[in-house]
Each structure stands twice: as structure tokens, then as C-alpha cells.
Amino acid sequence: MPRTDSPDPLAAALSRLPALQSLDAAARAEWAGHFKLQAARAGDTLAAPGQLASRLWLLLSGSVNLLAPARAGLVTLQPGALFGHGAPPFNDAAHWSAQAGSDCELAWLAAADVMALCAAQPLVGCHLAPAHTSATELSQPNLLTTPVRALLKREPITVPPTISIREAAQLMCERRVSSVLIVEREHLFGLVTDRDLRNRALAAGLDSARPIHEIATIAPFSIAINSPAFDAQLLMARHNIHHVPVLDGQRVAGMITATDLAEQHSTSAVFLVGDVYRQTEIEGLARVAARVKQLQQNLAAAGASAYSSGHIITAVTDALTCRLLQLGEARFGAAPLDYAWVAAGSQARNEQSAKTDQDNGLILDDRYDEAEHGSYFKQLTRFVCDGLDTCGYVHCPGEMMAMTDRWRQPRRRWLQYFRGWTQEPEPKALMLTCVFFDMRCIAGRAELMDGLRREVLAQTRGNGIFLAHMVANALTHRPPLGLFGGISVARSGEHRGTIDLKHSGIVPIVDLARVYALAGGHEAVNTHERLLVAADSQEISERGAHDLRDALEFLAALRIRHQAWQIARGVAADNFLALDELSNFERSQLKDAFDVVQTLQDVLTQRYGGARL
């Protein structure tokens, strides 16, 4: 096949790539020196299914078609497009092939060269999101797909509950393990770690002849053997634990530790959360919180899904909130009555990114008396909200925070709020429903909130007038599509030439899923989970729910990658994406995602439009 000899088209194309614009001329020249040039005739196969990710391709002239027959996919790429390893189609290359759409010229890099160059120039890796920044990271299993079973290294070390503390310690020493599982009648009874031996036995002066169950964690958290390792990491991060028993049905199959997970992946929210709970001052918490930006960069570089990234990043926010409450109670004394600290908004939905403000509230036991208890809870909530602000979770501009008197109320008052919002759905009430219907208990007595949600859902299920108002409110956020279906960017202002990924893309999907949950009386809070449940109850078609989940994942992943790129360059993260950051392939997917959202917004408008009359 003929090959082109002139390097000029390649140099010109590389100079225009956003991925390389952070590099100086010498670094770009190094990249250019590794590319191989190739010419192709119309109809030539460039990569068969399963081969696309073996190279990173750059189209210099002509056109290339990416095809995925099983998914009815066809995208035509124009000059300047990157595709293949580390480029579109992200995380899905196995289903696509590449074919010359017309006579064309291309340049390509082998996957190993891409990884080596990204290792030398980490900023480039923020654009080539799924491409790991080192060969070592690439060889490590992905926690999102690796089952817990694959991480088990040995048979479980089990003991009966009657064995002595001394005998258990000797066994742990002999087997060189940091924990043992207590099993009775082939069922998991408890767990003892080296920390338990140190804190509950040795430091407490307990007689080592006493039975091991006296220092054990009874009925510990556990995980199923076929669960993804990510679920184990999330469980550890949420509960600040480092050992999780693995069950195969009811049988104890082994133990997985935080060290096992850290060995498999360089990003460990478990250890970040562990650092949170080791801090005794707000300044220390702020230093730990600053590492969340790096966590998001690592997750983006590892190709983690937006769904998984949201859960991991939110787990750190939860830990910071819980630790601030602990420090607050240490300073002001134990709470005089039960409360539930609740998160709202993206934290409640487990959908946070590195850039976010705080939305929260405090639900108090109905025994609350302002004269007797008001001063304590005002101090505590101010301490926590100010602490979160210091950690980078800025005060809510609308003051929807627990330190605000209105959002620090007994349960009976919260119930009045929700009843009022659903019975008289004026604009302010609808906005508050959107914020506080997405609630999740972070600390305290969860029952105070759980019962509240059930009572509210009983009023919204099938309430056509209220739902019609919610749909109208949701339509204030529309995808940025022009009159002829093209993507419209901001024409003026600070963010001219960009699209707002949050308010024009992600928020409309969140709003749709919330309407489905309110209509069906579903308690799910996470948007993906709401869409799954809504499809089961036929609030939305199964295909519609699937399309919305795909659109949400694509938009949220774009947002995470955009913010990771900004963080790497020392720029404040935001939600405003310039279209020239995207490939032709991504622009096509972006338009498809907006079309899906707009279509389903129109469906709800037709369903509930007449109910407001």
C-alpha cells in the first residue's frame, strides 16, 4: 500500500489536537516521531472488531467510518479525529470496527507507545481518559469488573467463638494474617482483627484466657463472592473498615482486605477515608479533602464509569461529614436527643464530582424543644457546615444547609414542609421538593428520615396535578439543541462558545428520573437506580430507561474527564465544555444523548400537560 512521505500534514494535525496543546514544540515533536503514516482506499478495513484498541489512530485526510452492526452504530469521522486506544469509542472499542469511508491518509501509534508517551506527559492522559498512564497500571485488574473471588488469596482462617484470645493471637501469628473469622455451625458469627487484639484485649488489660467472642465484631459487614471488587472498596470506604468477610451463599469463603484492593488499583478511596478518620482538626480534614481532586483524575485515567466515580467520590464526602459530626460532639458534648443528618442533592444521589457545594439538613426527634435544645444543635450544625466549607464544599448559595434554622427542624415540621410542597406546588415549593426529595441519611438515626420519605411518597404516587407541576419545573432545563437539531453553544457571557454539561445535560435527566420516582412511589435516590425501578414499574419504557442511563453515563463521564483535565492544568474545575474538546465521534454521541433527553421530556409533557388545567 502506498505511504505518504510528507510529515507536514501530521505536524499540522498534531498542533491542533487539544490533547497535545499543553505540550511544548519539542514534546509534540517527540509524539510525531513515534507515529507511523498510512494511506487507505475507500472501503479498506483498518481495524476489525476487537482490534480497534490496539492502536491510537489520527485521521489526516479523507473520512473513516466506525461501525458497530450489533448496536446499529455508524459514525463518520472527519480529518483531525482521534479514534482507537485511549480515544473514542471509550470503554467500548471491542464492539466497533474501522473502515475507510473514502481514500484517506492516517497516522497511528501502537498502544504500548501511547502508554509510554502518556507516562512521560501525564497531562495528555487526561484527554485519553481510558488509557492508563503506565504499563503497570494497565496490567492491573479493574476493580469495577474484577469479582471479589479473583482477589481471594487463601482459604479462610476460622475459629470457634469459644477459643481463647491467646490461642487466636497465636494462630494469627503462625498464619501471618491480620484477622480471623469466627464461625459457628458453618455460619459467620464474628470477626477479630489485630486492631481488636490491641485495643479491646491488650490495652484494656483483658485476661487472654477469655473467649475470643468477647472482643469480636459480631455480625460484621460481608460481601458476596461474585460481587465486583469495587463494591468491597465502597463498603470499606463508607464504614471505615479494612477487613470484609467473603461469603459464598452462607458459607465463609475467605477475607478481603484494604491492602488486597490497594495492590490491585492505585486509587484507593479506602485509605483516603481512613485518613479522614485519623484527623483531629479541621485543617487536617481540609488537607485530606484536597486529595479528592487527584482521586477524580485517577478515576478518569483508569476509565472508571461515571456511576462508579460518583459513588467513590461521594463516599469521601460522607466520611468528612461523619468525622466533622464526631469532632463536633467531642467539642460540644453528646447530642441531647436523636437526630438524622441528611444530605440532599448530588451527595444524596451518590453522584458527586470534585466540584460541588453542600446541601444538607437536620431532622430532629419530635421531643425537640427549641429553648432546651436549640443552642446545642445550632452550634453543632454551624461547626459541621463551616467545616465542610473549609474542606472545599462551599456553603449553599440558597442556604439550604443544616446550620440554617429552617432546615434544622423536628420530624413533624419536616413532614409539614413536604405536605405543603405537594399540596400547593408553587415554583419555590417545586424547587425545594427537587432538593429535599433527594435525601439520604449520612449519620444519626436513619429511621427519622426513612419514615418521612414513605409518608411523602404516599402523597405523590399518582398525584397528577402535582406531577404536572413537577414536569413543568423540570422543563426549565432543556438540552441545548437548535431549531434544526444541532448543538447550540452559549453565544455571549463568560462561557461563550461552551455548553453547560450540568444544567443542560445531567440535570434534565436527574429531573426526569425524580418525576418517575414520585409518580411510582419509589424510594430509590440514585438516578441510575431510579431509572431501573421506573422501567420495572412501567413509568417509562425499558428502552427509554436504557437510553437515559446511557445518556447520563456519557454526559457525566464527559464532565468528569473535562474537570480532570482542568485540575491537571491547575485550572478551577467547572461544567462548561467547549465543543472543540470533543472528537467527531463524541459530538455525534453528545447530540444523540440530547435527542434522547428532549424526546422523553416531550413524552412526559404529553402525559401530564392537561393535568394542570
Question: How would you concisely characterize the structure shown here?
Answer:
The chain has 23 helices and 21 strands. Mean pLDDT is 85; it is low at 1-6 and 129-141.
Explain this structure.
With 613 residues, the chain is of the alpha+beta class. It has four domains: 8-139, Sandwich (Jelly Rolls); 148-229 and 240-265, CBS-domain, CATH 3.10.580; 266-458, Beta Polymerase, domain 2 (2-Layer Sandwich), CATH 3.30.460; 461-613, Nucleotidyltransferases  domain 2 (Four Helix Bundle (Hemerythrin (Met), subunit A)). The strands form six sheets. It has a four-stranded antiparallel sheet. Helix 20 packs antiparallel against helix 22 (542-568). The protein is globular, with a radius of gyration of 27 Å. Mean pLDDT is 85; it is low at 1-6 and 129-141.
